[in-house]
Amino acid sequence: MNIASDRARLPRQIPYIIGNEGCERFSFYGMRNILTPFLITSLLLYLPESERPGAAKDVFHSFVIGVYFFPLLGGWLADRFFGKYSTVLWMSLVYCLGHACLAIFEHHRTGFFIGLGLIALGAGGIKPLVASFVGDQFDQSNKHLAKVVFDAFYWIINFGSFFASLLMPIFLRQFGAAVAFGIPGALMFVATVVFWSGRKQYVMLPPAPPDPHAFSRVIRTALLAQAPGQARPGLWVAVAGVAAAGAAFALLPQLGFVVVACLALVALIGGVGGGAWLQMERARGTHPDAAVDGARNVLRVLVIFALTTPFFSLFDQKASTWVLQGNEMTMPAWFQSAQMQALNPLLVMLLIPFNNLVLYPLLRRRGWEPTALRRMTAGIAFSGLAWIVVGGLQLLLDGGTPLSIFWQVLPYALLTLGEVLVSATGLEFAYSQAPASMKGVVMSFWNLTTTVGNLWVLLANAAVRNEAVTGAIAGTGLGLVAFQMFFFAAFALLAALAFGLYARRYREVDNYRA
How deeply is 406 buried, as exposed, middle or buried, from its count of CB atoms within 10 A (0-12, 13-18, 19+)? Predict the structure, then answer.
């Protein structure tokens, strides 16, 4: 028995980080969950009524793409220059400014969209760092407590989200957009103060010094190194990825900057990463074996991340597609479709302790270990099942059958179970698999999975504006919305199959600090 491990206690600075996260998540979900209804009923009134739902979905998912793209910037700044604490603090102030813009410019499109951009920068900039900062507070003596804290971290996220989802639609209807967007801004300021208050107790790991064997240098060596008598297929794969990224901008007039930039990023990461994988052994000798093995492991983690992107394409549409479906359903006069989103965090707060205290121990007693990758495989599959159910509801609505909005409880329950198995698990998995010098950036790539997931949504929305595509869908006998729902369900189930097959060959590592 490890007595030191048994006596290890929770670091006393953790409550500051958890408190900060609860307030920040209230602020984020408070504005996020009323964004689609506000756009349709206020900011997009200049559009024909039939075009407003599609335009609102495009704005919403473009915003989410930004939120989960800027973690790349935040992770890079923290890892190379300022450290996690300072980056989180300054990005939080940008975040507060964005909320102020939403409250002030409720009737001014340019000012409102600037506010969304600042929130995307601030929220995205801190997103990979707060979770990673939690991990920094642990070492080998108490790392067994980290899983409990990561679960608590995810629990408090949903505690804030629950009250925000329940209350902000009411404030929007009763008091207007200035108050409904102003309250989340005030909570974000409180979050910043709480985080600052713990500054004297945090473990603050300094930014990594310039490393001649850093991940990027190993990748570059692997791509450019020549082996006598051998071709360089990896380099050509990387060149093809760069070319594809450049060619994506030819689609700018049809798809818009956000979609094109995301497509270019996917092509660049896929080309350079895939090319380096083919030639990774050529970096040995120039770089130590540990650096080469670490770089290879990061690329393997990125494949895991890529296979989770279909889950996020389904999950984030509960705040757009599912809200719009709810508007077609019957509901009490005091209720709004956006408030159904409160069910998601409420179920998360129930499922996390249920899984840890009941489900996982039961599975272990039956001889089946619920590893991180097994849980994530099941989670992606559950999201696909949720969309089969919500697609069935849409078929009934399209057929003229009146349905209560409370029929959405079942798909919300399935989707939330998937979220707990994928998102809560993925936070700890991403941290544990990241080499010490790459924790911020690897956590940023974990957040980038949501960007790519929302890219699939925007591409699907763009596709159904094509007459040939809509004609083909009409030939199936399904309505446009129902077809998209079943399409995304199949997308997730295929991804779960691919994820499970890849996970069987994946070897997990332990990168907690000594």
Answer: middle
pTM above 0.70, yes or no: yes
pLDDT at 510: 65
- 287 bridge partner residues: 284
Q: Token digits for 348?
A: 């998360």
Interacting residues of 103 by C-beta distance below 8 A, sequence separation 6+: 177, 178, 179, 181, 182, 185
Give residue 113's pLDDT: 94
The string of pLDDT tens digits covering residues 429-473 is 877 777 766 665 677 788 789 999 999 999 998 888 888 888 899
- Close Cβ partners of 245 (under 8 Å, ≥ 6 residues apart): 263, 264, 265, 267, 268, 271
User: Of the candidates 241, 237, 246, 248, which has an alpha carbon nearest to the alpha carbon of residue 268?
Assistant: 241
pLDDT tens per residue across span 298-308: 888 889 999 99
Residue written as token pair 């989410």: 64
Name residue 261's amino acid.
A
Q: What is the DSSP string of 31-85?
A: HHTTHHHHIIIIITTTS-GGGHHHHHHHHHHHHHHHHHHTHHHHHHHIIIIIHHH
Name the residue among 181, 127, 165, 180 with its Cα closest to residue 348: 165
Rounded Cα distance, 295 and 105, in Å: 46
